[in-house]
Amino acid sequence: MASILYVVATPIGNLDDLSERARATLDSVSMIAAEDTRHSGRLLKTINVSTPLLALHDHNEQRATAGLLERLLAGEDVALISDAGTPLISDPGYRLISAAHDAGIEVRAVPGPCAAIAALSIAGLATDKFLFVGFLPAKAAARRKELEGLSGNSATLVFYESGRRIEALMADAEAALGGDRLACVARELTKLHEQAFRGDVAEVRAWLAADPNHLRGEFVVMISGAPNQGRAATIDLDTLLRELAREVPASAAARIAARITGRRKAECYQRLMELIPPK
Questions:
Q1: Percentage of the chain lying above the pLDDT 90 cut
Q2: In principle, which of 29, 53, 180, 242 could form an S-S bond with 77, CB 3.0–4.6 Å?
């Protein structure tokens, strides 16, 4: 009998985001592979699903994959879920999916919530090209080195981070990428205390420091990519600053000009003051 491995997205905070198809799939399969069976057990109880759970996490994935493949090859359908959101996005499951493909087992997605995509949809940053980085290294030196390696990438950069390290990540981002890049941090998406703040990297750091509540929860951090230097070189800074100053305050004009040209915000602001001295 042909079997199917379902990759099922689950809510990242709001239970109402669980699709009816996802609930029906979890109810119909023979086994659910879950990152944390205790956490997922509470979800299944809430949605009145009694399908057996099997733990599949970073420390046992190779061993668990062998047992799940036996079930699939015997004709049983299996579902894979993570603690929250879409499996495999900074979560375990790659070995199982890869092994299933190699064994000729059909793999189907049951799509739904994903913190990275949800955050990008509200960030107001370019989404035509983005790079999902996930969690950066916990150690400062390794984190800074990775950020420096990303400094020339023109795609919007997307990171996951915890409240414990969010300030350290933004400090390293300012040092490695510059404080003038447009950024957005979204925390506790779909939950009661959901917040999103958009500004340049330096402004985001100030917002985080302004209130201890801003440091709580799980974060998606998005930072604009490196400016297109070829295009920026063709833009006359003085003309751009004069036109922007007609429409927005000086600080905003300098910030926008910095994003477009790749120059420092302070440099743009100083030049604007020279062109249009304050009265």
A1: 81
A2: 29
